[in-house]
Design brief:
11 helices; single chain; 7-stranded antiparallel β-sheet; Rieske Iron-sulfur Protein; Naphthalene 1,2-dioxygenase Alpha Subunit, Chain A, domain 1; 2 domains; alpha+beta; globular
Length: 394
């Protein structure tokens, strides 16, 4: 991050001062969401990277991108260059830097038997252990002594894989991943996620802060105004308000009849209980990983921060059994993919207009609906908790 420590302290103090106006404690209709600086201030964006994205479990990659032993994938989380690698015992994460002189080890995705630094050819195993330092003790005097090499092993990052989704926690200060994800997993009884496979992926660049994409994802209030097909599928009178549990935001609905885009033409989860056969649910794992689940599909949504005014959205689509790639379902798959593409394009313009509005003195947190927007107040609370007690302790 380019922001200085003093600048981060200053923006943190200003943010906490604004949040101390009671907007998190007042009844929702008297409260407000996050202040404008959370969406417009570059120093605040840097502060988020050092706190929110270091101290929580953050989505890093899809496990199918690391399908075989030796597959390596460089990623950047919280401004830190990391590398994911599949070893004999699963996927691990390391800081993507040689311990000697700091050269980045992996520049692009690929498959290798080991890490080799391009600078002095120090080599590391897939488990991060330093294997050899050529000419370390002088010409032709190589260091392969494990006891001596051990202090220079790659620095590991906490890493967990849940189905096809890889998460990291850079600071290692988050609660155990199983506990963090529990509000979601406890609501997935009846869905055999081992039956799904990756089918397609959509990418979108937005001129908007990442938080607006997440806030929009969990909020169904805009459906009647922005999404004609979705409103026909499930009207506003049939929609429950979103809610929350620990570090998870959640919402869902029941639909009267399947549609080709939702449960209508593709295979369903096997032995799906009756109470799941006409239901869709969606979740956000704070800060920026989300997904929806229906009888015939799982749809992952990630809002990747780029800078204070830009983010990149990824939508990854998973289908059940033969629905993943069987030719008989090709048209059905295309229909679902097009539907998600169309829905997201219906959102993008509105999200970008909300970003533009965050520069207005006439808006600073909004006037919230007591029915639809308690989740927005709660999201603001999660962010505040992540920022509070932050950089001075790191």
């Amino acid at each position: 991050m380019s922001s200085s420590g003093a600048a981060l302290q200053q923006v943190r103090s200003e943010f906490l001062r604004q949040m101390a106006d009671g907007r998190l404690e007042r009844p929702v209709e008297q409260a407000a969401g996050l202040p404008n600086l959370c969406y417009t201030d570059a120093d605040f964006f840097a502060l988020e990277q050092q706190t929110v994205f270091r101290d929580n479990w953050v989505f890093a990659a899809f496990a199918h991108e690391l399908a075989k032993v030796g597959d390596m994938l460089p990623v950047e989380i919280a401004g830190q260059p990391l590398v994911l690698v599949r070893g004999e015992n699963g996927i691990r994460a390391f800081h993507n830097v040689c311990r000697h002189r700091g050269a980045r080890l992996v520049e692009s995705a690929g498959r290798h038997r080991k890490f080799v630094c391009p600078n002095h050819s120090w080599s590391y195993g897939l488990d991060g252990r330093l294997l050899m330092r050529p000419h370390y003790h002088g010409g032709e005097r190589h260091d392969v002594n494990r006891a001596e090499c051990h202090p220079a092993d790659l620095r590991a990052v906490a890493c967990e894989t849940w189905h096809d989704w890889v998460f990291v926690n850079i600071s290692a200060s988050a609660k155990p991943f199983a506990d963090a994800i529990a509000p979601i997993t406890t609501r997935l009884d009846g869905y055999d996620l081992s039956a799904i496979g990756f089918a397609d992926r959509l990418e979108f660049d937005l001129r908007a802060n990442w938080k607006l994409a997440i806030e929009n994802f969990i909020e169904p209030y805009h459906v009647f105004s922005c999404h004609p097909w979705l409103n026909d599928f499930v009207g506003m009178g049939e929609r429950d308000p979103p809610t929350y549990d620990a570090n998870v935001l959640l919402c869902g609905y029941e639909f009267g009849a399947p549609d080709p885009a939702r449960g209508g033409q593709l295979p369903w989860f096997p032995d799906l209980p009756a109470n799941k056969q006409n239901r869709g649910d969606w979740f956000v794992l704070f800060p920026n990983f989300a997904f929806e689940i229906f009888p015939d599909q799982v749809d992952v949504f990630v809002a990747w921060p780029r800078d204070v005014g830009h983010c990149r959205e990824t939508i990854a689509l998973y289908f059940v059994g033969d629905g993943v790639d069987a030719p008989a379902y090709a048209d059905a798959r295309r229909h679902v993919v097009k539907n998600w593409n169309d829905l997201n394009h219906e959102d993008i313009g509105v999200i970008e207009r909300m970003q533009a509005g965050r520069y207005s003195e006439g808006f600073d947190g909004g006037v919230l609906s007591p029915y639809w927007d308690p989740v927005q107040q709660y999201f603001a609370g999660l962010l505040t908790a992540a920022i509070d007690g932050s950089i001075s302790q790191n």
